[in-house]
């Protein structure tokens, strides 16, 4: 990011070029997309096993038995991959006082009256909700998943425990898919957000408009020489 960024004016152009702000390192983006692909594959293979009407989805994974074998392994990939995201982002997702105000004004969020919202840091309350609910859901999914992974853990639990685990696993999966839909919808709905996870940067205007406190912090931290670009997380 150019260090000449005038945060008070919300400059979006510097020396004739649009100002961009680094938001994600390449490592964070690869980590994110591995997580995203795993969740999509898990949802498809899980739904294939969930209801006979959706059994045709097993065709994507080479048939019923293969789907049953592959599904838990993709779950293991999702677990470790999300754990990587968790380590990277948990701090930025801690609840702050302005998040409560942002949430109380959710009507203004939905009607795009951003001038009435408080300045927020790297993530807003909605993103923090997605982050923490996914963290909890993935723990529930892996724990219940292991209980019903008979190929390796058959002897460790009783049939009663397995019955409860199947029920909780399916319910957690439905909630996780819903949270994922909200996450993707929000990423598309807030114009200019997708490029954060594809190119790693956002425009200065986007940062000023949606995460002004974060932008102010970056500008305050950035070195005062012209070559300086603010490191992404
Ligand atoms: C195809 C599906 C997905 C798309 C298009 C997508 C898109 C995005 C975008 C654009 C961002 C950047 C938001 C910002 O910086 O303001 C982001 C952040 C993030 N995404 Fe995704 N994502 C997808 C799937 C997932 C899945 C499946 C998970 C987790 C299970 C996930 C977890 C996260 C996390 C943790 C962040 C950082 C935000 C935070 O920590 O609050 N994403 N995603």
Would you write up a description of this structure?
With 233 residues, the protein is mainly alpha-helical. It folds into 2 domains: 1-22 and 200-233, no CATH class; 24-199, Transmembrane di-heme cytochromes, Chain C (Fumarate Reductase Cytochrome B subunit, Up-down Bundle), CATH 1.20.950.20. Helix content is 62%, strand content 4%. The protein contains 10 helices and 4 strands, in the order E-E-E-H-H-H-H-H-H-H-H-E-H-H. It has helices spanning 26-50, 64-89, 97-104, 106-110, 125-147, 150-153, 159-189, 194-198, 204-210, 212-221, and strands at 13-14, 17-18, 20-22, 201-203. The strands form 2 sheets. Strands 1-2 form a two-stranded antiparallel ribbon. The longest helix has 31 residues, at 159-189. It starts with 12 loop residues before the first strand and ends in a 12-residue tail after the last helix. Residues 23, 32, 35-36, 39, 82, 85, 89, 93, 123, 127-128, 130-131, 134, 180, 183-184, 187, 193-194, 196-197 line the site of protoporphyrin IX containing FE. Protoporphyrin IX containing FE binds next to helix 1, helix 2, helix 5, helix 7 and helix 8.
Major sheet size, sense and barrel closure:
2 strands, antiparallel
If you average the pLDDT, what whole number results? 92
CATH superfamily of the largest domain: Transmembrane di-heme cytochromes, Chain C
CATH class of the largest domain: Mainly Alpha
How many structural units, i.e. domains? Answer: 2
């Amino acid at each position: 990011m150019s260090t000449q960024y005038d945060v008070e004016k919300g400059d979006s152009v510097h020396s004739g070029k649009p100002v961009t702000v680094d938001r994600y390192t390449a490592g964070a983006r690869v980590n994110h997309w591995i997580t995203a692909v795993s969740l999509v594959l898990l949802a498809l293979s899980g739904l294939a096993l969930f209801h006979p009407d959706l059994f045709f989805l097993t065709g994507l994974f080479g048939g019923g038995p293969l789907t049953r074998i592959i599904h838990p392994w993709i779950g293991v990939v999702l677990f470790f991959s999300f754990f990587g995201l968790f380590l990277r982002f948990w701090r930025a997702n801690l609840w702050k006082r302005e998040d409560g105000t942002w949430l109380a004004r959710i009507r203004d969020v939905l009607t795009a009256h951003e001038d009435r919202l408080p300045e927020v840091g790297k993530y807003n309350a909605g993103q923090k909700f997605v982050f923490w609910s996914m963290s909890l859901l993935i723990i529930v999914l892996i724990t219940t998943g292991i209980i019903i992974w008979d190929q390796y853990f058959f002897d460790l639990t009783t049939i009663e425990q397995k019955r409860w685990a199947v029920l909780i696993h399916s319910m957690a999966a439905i909630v996780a898919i819903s949270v994922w839909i909200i996450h993707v919808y929000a990423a598309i709905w807030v114009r200019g957000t997708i490029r954060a996870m594809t190119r790693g940067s956002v425009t200065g205007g986007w940062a000023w408009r949606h995460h002004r406190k974060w932008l102010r912090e970056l500008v305050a931290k950035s070195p005062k020489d012209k070559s300086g670009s603010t490191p992404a997380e």
